[in-house]
């Protein structure tokens, strides 16, 4: 099976999230069914359930990695980065669909998932003009005592995202970094800083 770290999000308690566009895709896993891929994921992660989103095919190098839009905060708790209300492109529709699916989903243990919204930036107000730029606050990295997230130059959205992440991660400092060079490659902070399990 072929996939990248950002293609799978886990809650550490048996539940995974992923997009079909990234993993159930002939460019990564030709001749493999969703059921086969799901079985491989569950074996690799020690999980028993995958929440699937349709995703976005062929629009970016990742085919819509889930970690740019939806993340687990804890077992039974997640967030989705939402687009501005005026956005109706394929990514905006995908984010809204992810929110709907996750809001109706249950964990591997059968509990309903509480879903928080993290408002994304307005692409017309960010610094970058690169059409492949990924402006994802949700693509953060959680480390000892802190959450490292991006900031993109939409001052209002940057400030609101920091406040939301501060509320969702009590006891941690939220640091925002200018990642314009990284984002121009279609990636973000979580993409290049995959977490390690506790020994």
Separate helix tally: 6
CATH topology of the largest domain: L-arginine/glycine Amidinotransferase, Chain A
The gyration radius over C-alpha positions equals 16 Å
The second-level CATH architecture of the largest domain is 5-stranded Propeller
Name the poorly predicted regions: none
> In CATH, what is the homologous superfamily of the largest domain?
L-arginine/glycine Amidinotransferase, Chain A
Helix content: 25-40%
Strand proportion: 15-25%
Largest sheet: 3 strands, mixed
Record field, number of beta strands: 9
At the first level of CATH, the class of the largest domain is: Alpha Beta
Distance between the termini: 26 Å
Structural write-up:
The protein is an alpha/beta fold and 199 residues long. The protein folds into two domains: 1-119, L-arginine/glycine Amidinotransferase, Chain A; 121-192, no CATH class. The chain is built from six helices and nine strands, in the order ββααβββαβββαβαα. It has helices spanning 20-23, 34-45, 90-104, 155-168, 180-183, 189-192; strands at 8-10, 15-19, 49-53, 70-74, 77-82, 114-119, 141-143, 146-151, 173-178. The strands form three sheets. A three-stranded mixed sheet has the order 1-2-3, sandwiched between helices. The longest helix is centred in the middle third of the chain and has 15 residues, at 90-104. The chain is globular. The model has no long low-confidence stretch (mean pLDDT 94). Keywords: Hydrolase. This is Agmatine deiminase family protein. InterPro entries: Peptidyl-Arg-deiminase_porph.
